[in-house]
Design brief:
mainly alpha, about 0% strand
Amino acid sequence: MALDVLKDIKEAEEKAESEVKAAQLQSKEILKDAQLQAQKMHDDIVNKAKEEAESIMNHAIKEGEDESVPIFKAGKEQKGEILDSSKEVLDHAVKIVIERIVSVSGNS
């Protein structure tokens, strides 16, 4: 009877040890899976943030380009006006100089 009890205790200890090892192995698997899942979630979040940042930047660039079109057009028109008025001023100055030269030299 005492031998049977000792045998039962030994079997219970072996079974408990086996279950502890299985639980440790299972906990390692769960931890590994959790780490992989966390890494995947991290990567997904980073990728989504990059895509969103790129989208925001592209939108801002397009908006800036759209706003710059009328500014460039107005600048081009002003440049043309300045060049035209400069030519008129230059022509007028040349005419005055010629008139003075002609009137001073008497060749009218």
